[in-house]
Amino acid sequence: MLRGYISIKVQCMYPERFLNICALNGVEIWNIKREENTIYADVRIKDYRRLRKILDKEFFDMGVSRRSGAPFFLIKFKKRYVLVGAMGLSLLLLWFSSLFIWEIRVSGNNAVSTSEILYVLDEMGIKTGSFRLGISQEEISNTVLLKIPELSYITVNTNGSIANVIVREKDPVPEMEDRDYPTSIVATKDGIINKMTVLEGKAVVSEGDTVLKGDLIVSGEMESIAGTYRYVHAKAEVYARTWYDVSVEAPGETFEKSYTGDTTTRYTIIFAGKHLDLYINSGIPYTNYDKITSEEKLSLFGKLSFPVTVIKETYREYELVPVEKSQEESVAELENFALRLLQDSMKGGTVIHYSTETDSSSGNMVLTVSAECTEQIGIEQDISSDQIKSNDKDEGEP
To answer: What is the C-alpha separation between 119 and 121, in angstroms, rounded?
Structure first.
C-alpha cells in the first residue's frame, strides 16, 4: 500500500500468452482473475510502465481499472498547497506539544496530600507547560525528599506529555507513650463504676461507687510509709454505667425527589488556565435540580495530553412529592438514627438497654431514647508542678 499498485485489465485472444510474457520479463502480478479473453490483475507501479511498453509491441489492449496506495493519495494534494501545509503544520505542532508536560498524575500517596507534592514540584519548575526533557530524577529525589520528610521515594516518569509521579511514603513510627511525667485518672462523665483495672497508681474509688465528671478515680501521687511522696504516670481501665437521653425530630410530612426527565447540559473549556463558557445564558431554568459535573482532559491515545479540559455540567430537574409513611416506619427510622448518635457519643461503649418515647403534639414527630450504657470514662490528667512543689514543701516541714 505504501509503494502503491495499479489494477489492470488486459484483453487478448490468448490470455496464456500474457501470463508467459509477465513470467519471462520478471513482472510480478497478483489477484489474477480471468473472464473469457480478459484478464484482471494487480501490478506494481514500476512494473506497470515496463509492462505497457512490452504489451504495446505485442498489440495487447491494456487498461487501468483502479490506482491504489500512498503515491496516488498524495497526488490528490499536489495542488492543494494550503491543505498540505496545514497538515504538515499540525503534525509539527503535535510533535512540539509532546515535548512539554500537560498533565501530572500522582500515585502512591496516602498521608501526604497530592497538592503538597505538586506544590514542591512546581517550585522546582515541574508543572503544566514545563519542558519534559529537562527533568532530572536525582534533583527531584534530593529536593522533594528533603522538603517532604514523610516520603521515602519519588520518581517522575514521562509518557508522552503526561508526567506520572510515583511516590512511596515512610512507614509511620509508632508513638511511644511518654511515661516520665506524672498523671492521674479522672472521670469524663457521671456514672457508677462497674469495672476497674488499675495498672499504675492508687485507686481512690471502688467498683460500685458513683463518680461525677472530673472526679479523681486513680491518683498518680503515691505516699510511702515514711510519709514521703512519689509521682507516677497513672494507668487504668475504668468502665462505668452511664445514662443518656437522646432526642431526634422529623417533620410530620416527608418528601422525596421525583425526576421530571428534563435536563440541561453546559460545557466549559479550560485552556492554559483560562475558562471559556460554551453557553450564553448562565441562569438555571429549574427551581429544584441536581448538578452533575464531570471533567475530561483531552489526550491522544492516552499518552499525548493537551492543555485543554472539557467540563460538562448536567442539571436534572426534580419535583418534591410527599411520601406516605406509617407511624411504625417513622418511629423505626428515628430510633435507628438516635441509636447511631448515641453510639457515636460513647468511647468504646455499648448500650445495655433502652426505652423510647414519642411525641407528635407539635406537628412533628419527636422521639426520645433513654438508654443505660457501659463505657470507658477514665482519662489521664497531668499532675501540676505546683501540686508537686506543695507536697514537697509539706514533707520538708517538721
So the answer is: 5
With beta carbons less than 8 A apart as the criterion, state whether 150 and 169 touch: yes
Alpha carbons within 13 A on the beta-carbon side of 122: 9
Q: Are 108 and 154 in contact (CB under 8 A)?
A: no
Contact 183, 215 (CB under 8 A): no
pLDDT, tens digit only, all 398 positions of the chain: 557 788 888 888 777 888 888 888 888 888 888 888 888 899 888 888 888 888 877 778 888 888 887 676 666 666 666 666 777 787 787 777 778 888 888 999 998 999 999 999 999 888 888 888 878 888 898 999 999 999 999 999 888 788 899 999 998 776 655 567 899 999 999 999 999 999 999 999 999 999 999 999 999 888 777 777 788 899 999 999 999 999 999 887 788 899 999 999 999 998 766 788 888 888 888 999 999 999 887 777 666 667 788 999 999 999 999 888 888 888 899 999 999 999 988 877 899 999 999 988 888 889 999 999 999 999 999 887 766 656 554 544 44
pTM (2 decimals)? 0.50
Give the strands of the sheet with 378-382, arranged side by side.
202-203, 216-219, 183-187, 378-382
Evaluate whether 381 touches 221 at the Cβ level (below 8 Å). no
Rounded distance between C-alpha atoms, residue 274 and residue 307, angstroms: 10
Q: Where are the domains of the chain?
A: 5-75, 82-176, 254-323
For residue 7, give the nearest of 32, 25, 37 by alpha carbon: 32
> How far is the C-alpha of 192 from the C-alpha of 131, rounded, in Å?
69
Q: In CATH terms, is domain 82-176 a member of 3.10.20.310?
A: yes
Q: Which three cell numbers stand for residue 378?
A: 477514665
Angle formed at CA 52 by CA 48 and CA 58, multiple of 5 degrees: 145
| DSSP string across 234-248 | -EEEEEEEEEEEEEE
Give the CATH number of domain 5-75: 3.30.70.260
CA–CA gap between residue 127 and residue 95 (Å, rounded): 19
Tell me if 5-75 shares its fold with 82-176. no
CB-based contact 282:268 (threshold 8 Å)? no
